[in-house]
Write a structure and sequence with these properties.
Helix content is 39%, strand content 9%. With 406 residues, it is mostly helical. The strands form five sheets. A two-stranded antiparallel ribbon has the order 1-2. Strand 1 and strand 2 form a beta hairpin. Helix 2 crosses helix 3 and helix 6 crosses helix 11. The longest helix is centred in the N-terminal third of the chain and has 19 residues. The radius of gyration is 25 Å and the shape is elongated. The N and C termini lie far apart (58 Å).
């Protein structure tokens, strides 16, 4: 087991070892990779967490050009053998070694956050062409559970279609506005006093997904999204918990070209005004914190990085990653003041169709099966919700699916 240098003296000796042509070539490769990995780690670490050795490595000019002994094709083959255990590899038809293929998330397990996280880290992390927006990833490839939960919730509410990305965006913007769902619940309760609304909790949650014709999807508004949330009896504390996901989604829009920037700015203005009334929404402890990357994740990333470098793709150069140790609730939007006035008027009424209901297994998310007993969690008021009729349930692995009329 080879460790990083922990003192300035160990750093100096490792550098000399790497630069010494009389040292065995493979040993110099190992020394070089240790120095480069420590350098990259230190660059992406919050400055308050950097130790003295890291500061010297970053600030001392002699360490800016570390001699690179990796020059031959056999050197790269050695690195693969050095880094990746055989249990993660298989031999292809041409005799080369490759990682086992990672399967896409199971559509029947929409709240399997671990499966979502692993797939998103390799194929849909920030900076890639098919980025799953709103998920917090830091430079050590930790992923924040709170944003994974918000992504899973918005994704579960939308049926698969060409317009799904647009629908998910509108749900994310609702999550970013504190108290908006709570106000909608109160207004609906006043207009529909009976029967009582009971938020869904338990191992399986019944959800009627929304589907919009492609030619009408641009008129899908926050009011439509709120109607879908209320119809599905989504708990208020779930929407509160998804707040960070909504804001991260919103912030990421300002890091990339978009024709809707004014709309996103208006949403952020309203978010800031609502924060002064509702403050930052409470979170659910069981669905919070950071996901550490697994051993398999590291090797998958090693292969992916090699392909991205060859294709001149710099996923970390767009400003979408968080520094290691950085609070996920810190970004360029968190301390802004409103730019515009009020929200614009949304487009005309559209045909919002809810699909047949499905049963979603939420146990895979690792969260509570009953409402959290915290003083800050809001109590849902009474609401009248029309439930699906003639629903039938069938087992489908760990998840269940339900068919019926929505």
């Amino acid at each position: 087991m080879v460790d990083f240098p922990c003192t300035p003296y160990e750093l100096e000796q490792l550098f000399k070892y790497c630069a010494n042509p009389h040292i065995p070539h493979r040993n110099r490769i190992v020394a070089f990779m240790l120095l480069v990995e420590l350098q990259l780690f230190a660059q992406h670490l919050d400055t308050v967490l950097q130790d003295r050795t890291m500061r010297i490595l970053l600030d001392n000019p002699i360490y800016r050009d570390i001699p690179n002994p990796i020059m031959r094709p056999e050197d790269m083959a050695f690195i693969k053998r050095l880094h990746i255990p055989a249990r993660f590899l298989h031999t292809k038809d041409d005799g080369t070694m490759a990682l086992h293929v990672m399967c896409a998330p199971d559509p029947k397990k929409l709240f399997d956050l671990e499966q979502l996280a692993q797939y998103a880290l390799i194929y849909s992390r920030p900076g890639l062409e098919n980025t799953w927006q709103g998920i917090v990833v830091d430079f050590a490839y930790h992923m924040h559970w709170q944003t994974l939960f918000g992504f899973a919730l918005c994704r579960a509410l939308c049926a698969n279609s060409a317009s799904k990305t647009t629908l998910v965006c509108q749900f994310a913007l609702v999550m970013a506005q504190p108290g908006l769902y709570q106000e909608a619940v109160v207004a609906y309760a006043a207009a529909n006093p009976t029967p009582p609304f009971v938020a869904q909790y338990g191992a399986n949650v019944e959800i009627c997904q929304v589907h919009i014709p492609d030619d009408q999807v641009r008129n899908f508004s926050d009011n439509h999204a709120l109607h879908v949330l209320i119809h599905n009896c989504i708990p208020l504390d779930w929407v509160d918990h998804a707040y960070t996901y909504g804001v991260v989604y919103l912030e990421q829009q300002f890091h990339q070209p978009t024709m809707s920037l004014d709309v996103f700015q208006d949403v952020n203005d309203e978010r800031l005004q609502r924060l002064s009334v509702y403050e930052t929404p409470p979170t659910i402890p069981h669905w919070n914190g950071w996901r550490e990357i697994s051993e398999e994740d590291r090797y998958c990333l090693l292969f992916k990085h090699a392909k991205e470098v060859a294709a001149q793709i710099d996923t970390e150069g767009l400003g979408l990653y968080y520094y290691i140790g950085m609070d996920p609730n810190v970004g360029q939007l968190w301390k802004q003041t409103p730019v515009h006035g009020t929200m614009p008027v949304i487009g005309p009424a559209i045909n919002v169709a809810l699909t047949n209901s499905i049963m979603v297994d939420v146990t895979a998310a690792g969260g509570p099966l009953t409402p959290p007993k915290t003083e800050s969690a809001p109590q849902p008021p009474v609401i009248n919700i029309t439930q699906p009729e003639a629903a039938t349930t069938m087992e489908a692995g760990r998840a269940q699916t339900t068919t019926g009329t929505g």
